[in-house]
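Class prep. Write one:
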Amino acid sequence: MRILTIGGTQFIGRHFVQAALDGGHEVTIFHRGRTGAGLFPQATHLTGDRDQDLGALAAGRWDATVDFCAYLPRQVRALAGALGTRGGRHMLISSVSAYRAPAPAGFGEDWPLAELADPETQEITDATYGGLKVLCERAAIDAYGAAATTIIRPTYVIGPFDHSYRLTWWVERLARGGRVLAPGDPADPIQVIDARDLASWMVALLDRSATGAYHAVSPEPPFGFGLLLDAIATEVAPAGTQLTWVDSEFLRAARLTDAALPLWPGASLDDASLSAASPAAALAAGLAPRPLRQSVADIHAHEAASPTAVPAGTGIDAAREADLLAGWTARGPAGR
């Protein structure tokens, strides 16, 4: 296939481009040239900012287009206008945040979608992100037709080159050992997907001209944050590492967020339910998630070889963690 990617040099797109090239496909990457500009010399690179100038897409024809970075419906409509019928089948990366929360454990792709109070908003926030993704999905289907559109709704994506540093923070924190603050309840739902498994599966879906909406999530619920941290600890933590579970209410009162404690489900009680989606449709369509411990080992090895720049505000330092643990311990069982 001739595949056009919108984005494709940072994280999910980077793994997708590699999988597509490995599969013998011809790849054209449209990107801003800010990250990974020297990657993939065997691919065709077109430079531009989708919000300002799509002129680089004025010529060319592709069998499929994969959009990794649509956050506003106007971006989807502008891309469709620039490509016309030359983009082939369309694959859009959406999110499980597109669903209305709270959702029941094991919800499927037919669960109701989020709706924005102001569908004209251009402001991307935690409150509008999911609803805007829904509008992007609808804009794609309107432009290309349901029979030529594939919607991928991932949960938290993990793996090497993850610039968000969310799971990576926990991998590196547990690798240091000691007494570790574990937020919330071990049963709080969480799901992840390795970017490499997501990427190879997306290529396979394009190979088969598969359409429709799919969750890209793993493991199947129920799966709690405790099992996630246990898997990480088993792989990287030194002997003597101790997880201390601290109540979400206590942490929220201390003004902790899911940036300070990445992936913490208790930071938003309603949204946590969206981390218990059914993977049944994706598994039936060929998604094959690797064992979580393998992802953890690969992330840890990648950080040892090429440390990721930690985004500002991500994680807590040792002193803050110690203070929180001391405060929690001081409350005693009666205060909990």
In short: Residues 129-144 form the longest helix (16 residues). The first strand starts at residue 2 and ends at 6.
